[in-house]
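Hello,

Following up on my earlier ticket. Below are the two sequence lines again, exactly as submitted.
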Amino acid sequence: MRIAVDGMGGDFAPQEIVRGAQSVSREGLASIVLVGDEEKMKPFVTDHANLTMVHTPVCVGMNEAPSNALRKKKDSSMNRAFELHKSGEVQAVVSAGNSGAAMAFAIFTLGRIPGVDRPAIATLHPRMGEGVSILLDAGGTVDCKPTHLAQFALMGNAFAGSVLGIDSPKVGILSNGEEETKGNELTREAHSLIKELGINYLGYVEGTDMYNGRTDVVVSDGFVGNIALKISEGVADFIFKFFKEGIRNSLKARMGYLLLNDLFKEFQRKADYSETGGAPLLGVDGVCIICHGKSNEKAMRNAILLARKFVEKGLKESINETMQDYQSLQKVKER
Amino acid sequence: MRIAVDGMGGDFAPQEIVRGAQSVSREGLASIVLVGDEEKMKPFVTDHANLTMVHTPVCVGMNEAPSNALRKKKDSSMNRAFELHKSGEVQAVVSAGNSGAAMAFAIFTLGRIPGVDRPAIATLHPRMGEGVSILLDAGGTVDCKPTHLAQFALMGNAFAGSVLGIDSPKVGILSNGEEETKGNELTREAHSLIKELGINYLGYVEGTDMYNGRTDVVVSDGFVGNIALKISEGVADFIFKFFKEGIRNSLKARMGYLLLNDLFKEFQRKADYSETGGAPLLGVDGVCIICHGKSNEKAMRNAILLARKFVEKGLKESINETMQDYQSLQKVKER
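Thanks for your patience. The regenerated structure is below:
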């Protein structure tokens, strides 16, 4: 399998990106095409096995407006990676660059799967018990229509079922309460659409359900989803900093921490985004993993392995299939 | 000072409600008027000092539609408490009952402060360092207009400044990123309104800012605010259950936990809603504290003491003043 990696995207590019990619290619887990400024990437390449480079000096800034990138940076490392995917030279793209621009180029260059109006970023969240919860859209489309949410529900369901192997995934709309009387204008209309989709739909779910294992797929617009994501980070950060501070100020607490060290490490492994690697962009005609801007070597390695798994499990094909069924259903209704 | 308490509201009513109220009246911290079914409340009253009862057998169900309660339950313990406030017999109302109904009755019976279109529930959140962050609206109004968010910003600013004593509170709109290009339709319009209000406005803030101390007042519509609130609960719950489980399964970890016990307890005190007591409903013509449905004796006691503090600090008056200034400003603009 061949995977293109945007060598210039991310706060720690190109060093951490190249190292992460190389850790995969060296072990022969995938063939990597590193796209970017060859002169800047080269110093970090120590092993050329299963690794090639495609040179382009242009790169997208982390804070650049996606519309600007789309207009002026078609030659960027990011877009060249998508072009390699489009032409079939690679089976997936991984980028830790500007996520808005990555989404824009993915749509522009790869195109959308028929029936998908808006692709969605699906983030994976640790939770009580086994497995992960999937949140989508985590920030792709800020102002959504009810049909977009219905499509997110279908894509999330296909991803959870076919790719992650969850049997009959439990799908819910993120809302301010479980009762049907809750929700806002958007969720109320989306609720009536999703009810008809023939998936294991729970109705409205709450923020707590994302972490207690009640729901597998949590659907929201990209504005709410992104806030949910960052609130989660904020709370976890606050809790760990609180304990860190306390441990610094007390010998007794420090000893306690040492004894609890295994548990702290296990939690960190569960919660750390560098363990997950990245989030798939569902609904584009390909496999695209969007990584955290702060991705290090480990995060990149895991993101590339995630891309490999998603290609093997037929992510694109399963979304394609579910959207074909959806379109047929829509046509039947229109008659 | 006299405070009316809805004796029948909450999952643990009347027992925990009566006990919490009595713990305040017994110490002479406030005179309590317990409103509810006298026969049901009486068994828990052991000390009548500074405590009177107003009998009504009607109570609002925890899951009853607020519109239904408003139509059919004007004689409920909840609304009778607001009527006592309206007629000046008490200076505040505290209820752990159905929060939607409490908001509806507060608006119906007390009325809104002139210039306020939608009252907002303001929740207090622990954070790194000193003080608390204020989130509003945490669930009062689900579908908001930009002017509602602007009013929330003003009310939150007045509450943080005059009541909580924060000097020049830092106010932000909860969004999916800090840049002006972020946000959704609602926040973009609200942003341009709030910029003109002459408060210490930071622009967009992220979920992490609610917990790192960067912002004092976080403004959102009630749908997003409620999700933020429950995601926070979900993450904290997940983390503590994870450690609980781990401690159960390992002797070493259990010993560590014992050494860290002070820290765990301190955190619980910081994060426990029963320590805060409840959330003020800002914008109604009075002082109204809405409590968690699961409020116990301690939560009720703290909520009543919060109400007392807010009356003493002139909550109603400071919101009134800020809204008068706002209305004058609006009139100047219209000319």
